[in-house]
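Re: that backbone. C-alpha cells:
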C-alpha cells in the first residue's frame, strides 16, 4: 500500500486500483504489458491512424506517448533510487507528440519498441530493494516515490488503453 505522501493526488486515478489489486509492481508491469500486446493484435489496419475527433491522437501516437512516458518515468525512478535530489522538470507530452512521426512506422515495430521498454522497466524494478522503492524525489514540482512511479507506469498505460477502447471502438 502506498502512503499519501508518496505521490500527488492527481495520480490517484492511475495508481489506486493497481495498489489495491494485491499485485506487486513487477506483476502489474507484466500483466498490463501483456494486455497491451494482446489488444494490439486485435486492431484492424484501418484503426491504426483513425482519430475520433480533430486534434486527437491516433492509436500509434498513443502508443508512442506510452513508450515515451515510460522511458521518462524510468529515468526519474533511477535518479531518485540513486538518491539524486535534483528537481526534475516535467515534459510536454503534446510537444513530444508533435515531434514524432508514426505514419511511416508499422504498428508491430512500435509494439516491439514497447516490449523492449517494458522489459527494461521490469529489469530496473527488479533491481530495487524495498528501501530503494521508498526513496523520493521531486519531478514537475511534486514529490513522488520510486515505488509510486512503478505503479504509475502500469496505471498510465492502462488508462490510455481503456480510453482508446472507449473512444475508438
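Recovered sequence:
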Amino acid at each position: 500500500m502506498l502512503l499519501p505522501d508518496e505521490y500527488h493526488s492527481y495520480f490517484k486515478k492511475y495508481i489506486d486500483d493497481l495498489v489495491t489489486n494485491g499485485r506487486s509492481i513487477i506483476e502489474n508491469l507484466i500483466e498490463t504489458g501483456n494486455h497491451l500486446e494482446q489488444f494490439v493484435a486485435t486492431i484492424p489496419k484501418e484503426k491504426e491512424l483513425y482519430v475520433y475527433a480533430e486534434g486527437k491522437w491516433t492509436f500509434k501516437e498513443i502508443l508512442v506517448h506510452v513508450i515515451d512516458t515510460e522511458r521518462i518515468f524510468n529515468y526519474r525512478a533511477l535518479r531518485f533510487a540513486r538518491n539524486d535530489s535534483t528537481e526534475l522538470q516535467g515534459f510536454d507530452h503534446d510537444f513530444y507528440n508533435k515531434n514524432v512521426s508514426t505514419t511511416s512506422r508499422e504498428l508491430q515495430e512500435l509494439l516491439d519498441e514497447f516490449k523492449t521498454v517494458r522489459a527494461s522497466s521490469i529489469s530496473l524494478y527488479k533491481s530495487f530493494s524495498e528501501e530503494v522503492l521508498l526513496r523520493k524525489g521531486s519531478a514537475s514540482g511534486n514529490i513522488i516515490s520510486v515505488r509510486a512511479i512503478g505503479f504509475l507506469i502500469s496505471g498510465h498505460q492502462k488508462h490510455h488503453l481503456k480510453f482508446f477502447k472507449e473512444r475508438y471502438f
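The beta strands are 136-139, 142-145. The two ends are 34 Å apart (CA to CA).
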